[in-house]
């Protein structure tokens, strides 16, 4: 049973996090989807723990000389369609997801934070904490980002996502924006459960996938087994 669930979980990762499809498979394969969901939740928690460990060890920093960092904030509104008939599962207080994504060759490393609003007071310290000094940051013209150049970052602003205020590099921007868009799609795909804790877990899980799963030499499944073992040692 456990192996089957791990494989199913792994399959869901390989399918690019299509939660709805996985739900369908779970319903078909297993007579008791509830217990199966419990196990996948457990596996996801194991992944989240691994990300927290990495964060505690200060290994979760992005940028540097040879990478771009794209930053963006998105409001994830509660939609009726998904929430009908349920109560108390909206992200009322903290509905902004602030994302910073390192783009380096084909590697993508996102840092995703759930925040109350997108004021400078909230976003600025998060950038300082996670983005290495001197990094090249690409953002829109939202004024919370005004001071990044003063803090020693090389800051490019994209006006209305159509053109660069800074000359040149247009192709590069499109590339980065595509990566960012696909990350956002993954966040949306996971909106089955709209509780704040579930969203947080999903953000961590997306981070796990990019930072740890995809970079393990034996692939996502190899990393998953490693993290399961790490949890059982304690
Ligand atoms: C954003 O959230 C902070 C922290 O809760 C709060 O102090 C500030 O007033 C909020 N700003 C806006 C514009 O809502
Ligand atoms: C949503 O997820 C949270 C935590 O993961 C859980 O406690 C809650 O029961 C879930 N709610 C629904 C409606 O599935």
Structural description of this entry:
- With 234 residues, the protein is of the alpha/beta class.
- It has two domains: 2-57 and 215-231; 68-80 and 91-194, 2-Layer Sandwich (Nucleotidyltransferase, domain 5).
- It is 50% helix and 16% strand.
- The chain has helices at residues 2-14, 19-29, 33-56, 80-83, 120-130, 170-189, 196-213, 219-233, and strands at residues 68-75, 96-104, 107-115, 136-139, 154-159, 163-164.
- A six-stranded mixed sheet has the order 3-2-1-4-5-6, with helices on both faces.
- It is globular.
- The two termini are 23 Å apart.
- The model is unreliable at 79-86 and 163-168 (pLDDT under 50).
- Bound molecules: 2-acetamido-2-deoxy-beta-D-glucopyranose (2 copies).
- One 2-acetamido-2-deoxy-beta-D-glucopyranose binds at residues 116-117, 119, 122.
